[in-house]
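Page 47, continued from p. 46.
Same chain as before, 289 aa.
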Amino acid sequence: MPRQPSPISPDASPELRELASAMRDLKDSAGLTFSALTERVHYSTAALSGAVSGKKLPTWEVTWAFISGCDPEADEQVWKQRWLAAEEGEIRRNEAEATDEEATTRRPAGAVPRPRRSSVAELVREEVERRQQTTAWSPSEAMTVSTALALCTTAYDFRELLRDLMETQALTSAEIRANARNKGIILSRGDVFSVLHGSEIPETQPLHGFLLGCNVGLVRINEWHRTATRIKIAQARHAELSGTEGQRRKVNVAWKEFWGRLSFEAALSMISTILFLTVQLVSIIKHGI
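Result:
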């Protein structure tokens, strides 16, 4: 009796669960085991079982191999639409999870909540509001953005400004992608997600497309790119210095261990040998021998 597959992951988006369930039904209707399907499509059993687990979206290549292996007459376009719907569902789920993680401060049970770190965008807005209340100072939007970018020192700060830009422009991901496409750059939903929620400074092409999609002018776009480059260089230098410092510490530790293990007799013998060799060297130099 063939082993029954594990239940579909409850963490998957509804669209991915629907795709995985339909693929399982297709395999069952064909009366195939994973081993038999593996022989047909030349993907491993682990890859095929993972494709219907719901733990993550399989690639389209694996998905179509699974489907066509079960039903050679399957309609590729119909299944491709199902797969694209699952992809959209997973992107929405990941976006929601990323938002929840950023909005929640993780702390041990019973611990005093840590104050949330103010973003650069928030600090700039607070400063602008403070000055407007105390003086007649009225900065332009360009000056405010320039100030915020100048204060950026980390990828976190930079992403906060990008999210603030999107919020200020009142744009959705679809609108940003449409604007970028009208200006000659194709952005996927994944590109927009990586720009807003990635752990590092965004890559140049997606960042450029995102800024165009937010209707940022070319002069200001260059300012965003310069800030991104500055942060990348600072991070690279920090990593390089950290590596150099680590090597220096290892040498110091090894040197201390060497002298700590060296006995008095051994040290005296080593010093005597060095003195003897020095005398011999001086004699050779003096007499040309």
